[in-house]
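Q: Convert this sequence to structure tokens.
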Amino acid sequence: MSNLKLKVMRRVYAFWFLRTAYHSLALKIVGISLLGLVLRELVSLRSVIMNTMQTGGVDRMFSYLEYAFTHTTISVQLILVLIGALALWTIVDAIKKDFPLNLQSPIYS
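A:
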């Protein structure tokens, strides 16, 4: 009987950990950091920053960054999109946790 209880409790703890990790801010930040490290290996960020600063003007900076993004490899594009999506997901989750909507309030009545 105790073996069955032990197996069931292991599964319960495993599911609890997965649910906690799925909604964890730290896990998302670790994901963004790991993708950033991979991006650092694929792209010379120093060169991108120097080239961006030498374009002269904010409109030209954005034009250069758009051109650089569209003319890079698919792996770099995918990593940048994933970083952006994870960052957006992290911000939305943080806002939802810090500012929950209380639909029971008289404002929404």
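The chain has a mean pLDDT of 85.
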